[in-house]
Design goal:
The complex is a heterodimer. By secondary structure, chain A is α+β, with helices and mostly antiparallel strands. Chain A contains 17 helices and 20 strands.
Chain lengths: 554, 317
């Protein structure tokens, strides 16, 4: 009898341990000055191609003592990569976690790609053309692309891929981006024709997403891509030892000659980023992906490590649920927007490593912050808004935050809590485990939430799902404004980049003023490597695809 | 003895069945499921997509049916497939458990190597400065939570000495024993520290008890050397409670390994369970915890058997 109860106790203890051990150890804060060297780097993948969307330079490069490569690239060697989180699965169409993208984008490739300036550029497709008033998209494939099993990529594979994504039984994450496709035709081996229900400019941006990776018809018809991984990418998956090591070998038949330069990648999963930094310092790691600004700042003080710092597209935001009290009252939302100094939130939670952002995070579409409602903290205005609307304090609400995702969420909530005290608004912070958080977030079961939401280079993909009354995440944004609906519909079909920019500028101004959300800031992502690692290009969307160009100068 | 063993083995079944129910219910009680953990906040599935995905993972059946399907397969040695890797859960456990077992065994070894000698010394030199220091050690060991001790060790090692217990290139003991031990030693110390303290206390009190016995006085009276008296006559009897302690604590150490593995980034069963919970990979969590529990009850049984071997007075009818 005693054994039984002690066993039950033990199981409960294990569970309790497991739950309590979610609390991450506190990393030491050694704050050092960073020297920021801003450079413009343009990588042209394909010179002759026209592009539809124009964007500004976004990548900031922080270089600590790394001379530009002078010698010619050397081939060979294995690059030891370290990162904190492993992929959550291998089916390219079902995965949505960034940690999965960072692996799958090396193995699978979409038709189109983004360059360093977030311009849409050719990838597996060597060209594309719009016709029929933007209702037909004809894509020409590269003739020399082979899958990892040696099969040649054909238009049938592309057709199969998009039909798989559109099939609701696949439960593909990117399906909603492609529901505008009416029919897909493959008139010959290298031509794919997409017939659309209506013009949709954002389709091209959606075709650059890792979730639109092209799979082999033959392979996926026979096997589950969650288990069998055959893509066209620069690297082949050799072994996925979950949460330990992922081994990738160079794809010798890759369509770009001489690429990849290295023989392979060994990706080690080290959950603690401080340990990754120590590994870099000790020289056991060549290349690392770091998200925690506290760790990255320490790395910049270390010996000759090369650090690339890239502005992220994902944004930190305070979402107010405007279907719930007290946020049904616009004055309350506006007062909060006015009372929060966004830079202070950024400085406190992320040590200033980031930029205050407008609702759109891609630099080309990001509205001028000076044009947006209350982007300068104004306590008097906030108090006046509350007084004029006859709001009686104190208000009663809770702000939800995930414990670890992002790691800064709780600190952001605490800073906002302190700032709102100045106008007499107090609230309680609810810290939740990520799974619970996601569940409630999707059900819109919160008063307010400090979130890190994914961004996109295309404003249509970024805004439509939340702010259009038919958007698939509209329930989370809890917003219905016919004027915004009209603007978003217009943006979807406007081809001219400047006109589109103007439309989305108006959307952002309206959103900032109505203040359903208080957009805070975008953080940075860091790629840290040894000085002998050459040829890497960081991407604002975080993609690691340019690991294919990396070579080892040693 | 045989009858005793049969009885105990039969009694294991309801225990394990009970555990399986608790584990199943608890993991399913946590809000969120495999699908929402997988999709996160980036996308929203359509109703039909969600239904298809639920069916793909077998989550569309009623909970009770899910449980019986799982337990029926588990009895036949099939713990299901991991949502994440698509691999059988049993293979995942086989991949992760050796590390946890090694960590636990090493920490028991360290605890015995440290705790028993200090315990003896403390008993023999009762109420001296040595005894005081030893008891202070015991108090500290029991009071320090191991996640804190682990963090502290990592901090001191990396900041002061510039070395790191783990940089992701974990090697198995069979691969490279020396490298493996250098990677395991600090996690094992972390896990074994508190246990060393309780071993020391148990050894001390058992020794004090035994040293008062007549046969020890007789041994001394015969003119035997004090070392012989302590080691051969006293210690062998004082060790019985220590063996009990090891048996009882072993299961808890397996549980504690969950935390230490996460602090030191070791890819053992603890990491497997934790990541399984994050991702709501139900089969992995249920299978792993059931496996740990099975170890626990089997070890308890073994301890009972070992009693009989060590202590001639104990006989099972």
């Amino acid at each position: 009898m005693q054994t039984k109860s002690s066993v039950v106790l033990a199981v409960l203890l294990v569970l309790a341990f497991v739950i309590t051990s979610c609390v991450a150890p506190v990393a030491p804060q050694v704050v050092e000055k960073t020297v920021v060297v801003e450079k413009e780097k343009t990588v042209v993948i394909e010179k002759e191609k026209t592009v539809v969307v124009e964007k500004e330079k976004t990548v900031q490069v922080v270089v600590t003592a790394t001379p530009e490569p002078t010698s010619a690239p050397k081939a060979g060697g294995t690059l030891i990569v370290a990162r904190a989180a492993d992929a959550k699965g291998l089916d390219p169409h079902k995965q949505t976690a960034f940690s999965s993208f960072r692996l799958l984008e090396l193995i699978y490739e979409p038709l189109l790609a983004l360059d360093q300036d977030l311009k849409v550029v050719p990838n597996l497709a060597e060209s594309w053309a719009w016709s029929d008033e933007g209702k037909t998209l004809t894509v020409k494939l590269r003739p020399n692309v082979k899958f990892h099993n040696g099969d040649v990529l054909t238009a049938e594979d592309v057709k199969f891929t998009f039909e798989r994504i559109l099939d609701e039984n696949t439960a593909a994450a990117a399906r909603s981006s492609f529901t505008g496709i009416d029919a897909i035709e493959a008139p010959d081996a290298t031509t794919v024709v997409f017939k659309l229900k209506g013009a949709n400019v954002a389709l091209l941006a959606a075709m650059t997403n890792p979730n639109s990776g092209i799979v082999s018809k033959k392979v996926v018809s026979a096997e589950d891509p969650a288990k069998v991984t055959i893509g066209t990418g620069p690297f082949k998956l050799v072994k996925w030892d979950v949460d330990r090591t992922t081994t990738l070998a160079a794809n010798k038949d890759y369509w770009l000659p001489g690429v990849p330069a290295v023989d392979g990648l060994e990706i080690r999963i080290i959950p603690d980023e401080a340990s990754i930094l120590a590994g870099l310092r000790a020289g056991t790691i060549d290349w690392a992906l770091i998200n925690d600004p506290k760790v990255a700042i320490r790395a910049s003080g270390a010996q000759k490590l090369t650090i690339f710092r890239t502005g992220a597209l994902a944004y930190h935001v305070l979402q107010l649920n405007s279907t719930r009290e007290p946020f049904t009252n616009q004055a309350v939302r506006q007062a909060i927007a006015c009372a929060v100094d966004r830079q202070e939130v950024l400085d406190t939670a992320s040590l200033g490593e980031g930029q205050v952002t407008a609702p759109a995070t891609a630099p080309f579409y990001r509205a001028d912050l000076n044009d947006l409602f209350c982007y300068q903290k104004d306590v008097e205005k906030a108090k006046k808004l509350l007084a004029d609307a006859g709001v009686t304090l104190p208000l009663k609400f809770k702000v939800m935050a995930a414990a670890d995702e992002p790691p800064t969420a709780v600190a952001e909530a605490q800073n906002i809590q302190a700032q709102l005290k100045e106008i007499g608004i107090e609230f309680e912070i609810e810290t939740l485990e990520l799974g619970v958080y996601v569940d409630r977030w999707l059900k819109s079961d919160f008063d307010a939430v400090v979130a890190l939401n994914g961004g996109n280079p295309d404003p249509d993909i970024m805004f439509f799902r939340y702010w259009h009354s038919t958007g698939n995440l509209n329930k989370v944004a809890a917003w219905n404004d016919p004027e915004i609906d009209k603007l978003l519909e217009e943006g979807k079909i406007t081809l001219d980049p400047e006109q589109r920019k103007a439309i989305y500028n108006t959307v952002q101004q309206k959103l900032a003023e109505a203040a359903p959300w208080v957009w805070l800031y975008v953080g940075y992502e860091y790629r840290i490597m040894q000085p002998y690692v050459k040829g890497f290009t960081p991407m604002p969307n975080g993609s690691l695809v340019y690991l294919r160009d990396v070579w080892l100068d040693k | 003895m045989r009858r005793f063993l049969t009885q105990r083995l039969v009694a294991l079944l309801p225990t394990l069945l009970g555990i399986s129910v608790i584990v199943f219910v608890v993991i399913h009680l946590i809000p969120g499921d495999t699908i929402s953990a997988m999709i996160g906040t980036q996308y929203k599935l359509t109703e039909a997509q969600a239904v298809a995905l639920r069916a793909y993972y077998g989550l569309d059946k009623p909970l009770v049916e899910q449980y019986f399907r799982w337990i029926a397969a588990a009895v036949q040695g099939n713990l299901g497939l991991s949502v994440r890797s698509g691999q059988p859960v049993l293979a995942e456990i086989a991949r992760s458990f050796p590390l946890t077992l090694e960590l636990t065994l090493l920490s028991v070894l360290i605890a015995l190597l440290v705790g028993v000698p200090i315990g003896i010394l403390s008993a023999v030199k009762r109420d001296t400065l040595v005894d005081l220091l030893a008891r202070l050690f015991a108090l500290t060991g029991m009071a320090l939570p191991n996640f804190w001790l682990g963090t502290l060790i990592i901090l001191v090692l990396s900041v002061v000495f510039g070395i790191l217990p783990n940089s992701g290139d974990f090697v198995s003991f069979t691969g490279d024993p020396l490298r493996n031990l250098s990677q395991m030693i600090f996690p094992a110390i972390t896990l074994g520290f508190a246990f060393a303290a309780s071993v020391m206390r148990t050894t001390r009190s058992a020794m004090l008890e035994v040293l008062r016995q007549d046969y020890v006085r007789t041994a001394r009276g015969k003119g035997l050397a004090e070392n012989t008296v302590i080691i051969r006559h006293a210690l062998s009897n004082a060790l019985i409670p220590v063996i009990t302690l090891v048996g009882v604590e072993f299961g808890y150490l397996l549980g504690g390994a969950v935390i230490v593995e996460n602090v030191f980034s070791l890819p053992g069963i603890g990491r497997l369970i934790l990541n399984g919970i994050y991702q709501r990979d139900y089969a992995v969590v249920q299978g792993s915890i059931l496996f740990v529990a099975l170890n626990f009850v089997v070890i308890n049984l073994l301890v009972d058997v070992v009693y009989a071997l060590v202590d001639p007075r104990i006989r099972y009818e």
